[in-house]
């Protein structure tokens, strides 16, 4: 049994205070998303920036869920 695999593929119920942290991360990412949307021309690169920003939020929240 691999503890890392077990941890990564199980449900992590939010602990007290975590939903508020997730929301803070989402709000800051949304600010950046609007800035990118406003300043970057529509392009593949802009679409990738948005996709990677979404991934950043996901992984930041996963770090909290998996490791706190």
Explain this structure to me?
The protein is mainly alpha-helical and 68 residues long. It has one domain (3-67). 76% of the residues lie in helices and 0% in strands. The chain has helices at 3-8, 18-39, 44-67.
Structural class: mainly alpha
Strand content: under 5%
The structural domain count equals 1
Q: Tell me the distance between the termini.
A: 21 Å
Classify the helix fraction into a percent range: over 70%
Q: What about the largest sheet? A: none
Mean pLDDT over the full residue set: 97
Rg measurement, Å: 15 Å
Count of discrete alpha- or pi-helical segments spanning 4 or more residues: 3
Uncertain stretches: none
| Topology, number of strands | 0
Order of helices and strands: HHH
Looking at the structure, what is the overall shape? elongated
What is the fold's blueprint, element by element?
Elements: H1 3-8, H2 18-39, H3 44-67
Can you summarize this structure?
With 68 residues, the protein is mainly alpha-helical. The chain contains 3 helices and no strands. The chain is elongated, with a radius of gyration of 15 Å.
Name some characteristics of this structure.
single chain; 68 residues; 3 helices
